[in-house]
Amino acid sequence: MNKPFDIVIYGATSVVGEIITRYMVNRYGVDGEIKWAIAGRSEAKLLQVKRNIGAQNVTHLIADVSSEGQLRYLTEQARVILSTVGPYAIYGEPLIKACVESGTDYCDITGEVHWVSAMIRKYDAAAKKSGARIVHCSGFDSIPSDMGLYFLQEAAKEAFGEYCNEVKNRVAKFKGHMSGGSFASFINVINESKNNSQVRTDLDDPYSACPPNHGYTARQSDLNTALFDGDFDAWTAPFLIAPTNTKIVHRSNALLDSRYGTNFLYHEASLAGRGSKGRRTSLMLSLSLKMFWTLGAIKPTRWLLEKFMPKAGEGPTIEQQENGFFELRFIGHTPSKQRIRIKVTGDKDPGYGSTSQIVAESAICLLQTPTSVEGGFWTPSSLYGERLIDRLQKNAGLTFEVVK
C-alpha cells in the first residue's frame, strides 16, 4: 500500500499504450489524486511519448520484459500494473510471474485467450496465495461483452426475478481498425495452434478459461458460418473475437458460482442485414474471415496478407480513433420464456480509442478493489460488477441501456 504509484502503464510506447497515456493525462492529470507513471524498455521512446502528448512531467520507468530483476522492481513501484505489451503469448508471462510473486494487481488488453487459459493453469493458485488480482481481457476484448452480459442479467433479475439461461450478443454496428501489434498477435495464435495440441484444445473449447471443476456440458452453437437468426430477424456472420469473449463470459459465470445456471448458453456474432441482401452480406463476411485465417495459416500466402496489413508500431490515426464506434445488441431468454433486450455502445474506435478508455477505467476499478477481495485470476464482471459500468458510462464513452 506504500508504493509510490497507484498505476503504472507498461508498454506506453506501443500504439495503444500512447493512447492510454494521453487519456490519463487528459482525464486525470499528472499530479492529481491518482498517482501514475509510464514504463517501457526504451527511455528514448518513452521520452518521445511524453513529447507527443505534451506531458513532460509524467514519470517514466525503465523495465525490459527479458529482465526478471527489472520487472520485479517495476512491481515494487505500483499497486496496479496495466500492460499493453503483446503479443502476450510471447512477451506476457514474465510480468504475470513478477506480479503474482509480489502480490501486485495486474490488468491487460489481451485477446489471446489460449494464453489466458495457460496463465490461469500455471499461476492461479500462487496468485490466490500472494493476493495478486489478475484481470485479463480488459479492453474491447472482452469488457463490452462481459459487462453487457452482466448488465442484461441484472436487468432480467430485477424485471423477472430470474436470470437468463441463454443470451445472444450481436454486433450491430462497428467501425474500427487493426494495428500492427494486433496483427502480430493474430499470426502468433495461428502459429501456436499449428504446433501445440493444447492451444488447439483451448481455442476450440468454450469453457477452456473456466476453473477445472466447472462441470459445464451445454453444447454451444458454433457460429462460424452465415446463419439466419429469428430473434433478430436478420442474417448473421462470424465475429472475429467472439471465441475470446465467449470464454471470458463463461469464466465469469463460473466465478459467480454459476449464477446464470450450469447449462447457460452464450452466442456472439455480427448482424449482416435482412432479406437476400443480408444473406449475401453474411456469406461474404463469413468467406472473408475464413480467407483471413487461411492466408495467415499458410506460409507461402502469409506474405500477401502481411503486405496489406499494418506493420509493428502502426495503428489508426487520432482522427480514425475518434471517428470509430460500436453497438452491441443483446437478447436474453429466461427459463420461464421471458425475454429482455439491451444495447451497449461505444463512441470511439473499438480496439484503440475505446479500448484505451475502457482499460484505464478498469485499472482504476482494480485499484479501488478492497484488499479483502482474494487474489487470483478474475474477469471484469466477476470482480467489478456495477462499479465498472458506472465508470465506463461516466468517463469512457460507453452506454448500457435496456431496449423496450
Number of helices: 16
What is the subunit arrangement here?
A: single chain
Portion of residues within helices: 40-55%
Based on secondary structure, the structural category is alpha/beta
* Percent strand: 15-25%
Topology, pairings included?
Layout: E1 5-10, H1 15-28, E2 36-40, H2 43-53, E3 60-62, H3 68-77, E4 78-83, H4 88-91, H5 93-102, E5 105-108, H6 113-130, E6 133-135, H7 143-160, E7 166-175, H8 180-195, H9 197-204, E8 227-229, E9 234-237, H10 242-255, E10 265-273, H11 275-297, H12 299-308, H13 318-323, E11 325-333, E12 339-346, H14 350-367, E13 376-378, H15 380-383, H16 386-395, E14 398-403
Parallel strand pairs: 1-2, 1-4, 2-3, 4-5, 5-6, 6-13, 7-10
Antiparallel strand pairs: 7-11, 8-9, 9-10, 11-12, 12-14
Helix pairs in contact: 1-14, 3-5, 5-6, 6-9, 7-10, 8-9, 11-12, 14-16
Give a description of the structure.
The protein has helices at residues 15-28, 43-53, 68-77, 88-91, 93-102, 113-130, 143-160, 180-195, 197-204, 242-255, 275-297, 299-308, 318-323, 350-367, 380-383, 386-395, and strands at 5-10, 36-40, 60-62, 78-83, 105-108, 133-135, 166-175, 227-229, 234-237, 265-273, 325-333, 339-346, 376-378, 398-403. By secondary structure, the protein is α/β, with parallel strands linked by helices. It has 2 domains: 5-139 and 353-389, NAD(P)-binding Rossmann-like Domain (Rossmann fold, 3-Layer(aba) Sandwich), CATH 3.40.50; 143-350, no CATH class. The chain has a 7-stranded parallel sheet, with helices on both faces. A 7-stranded mixed sheet has the order 8-9-10-7-11-12-14. It is globular.
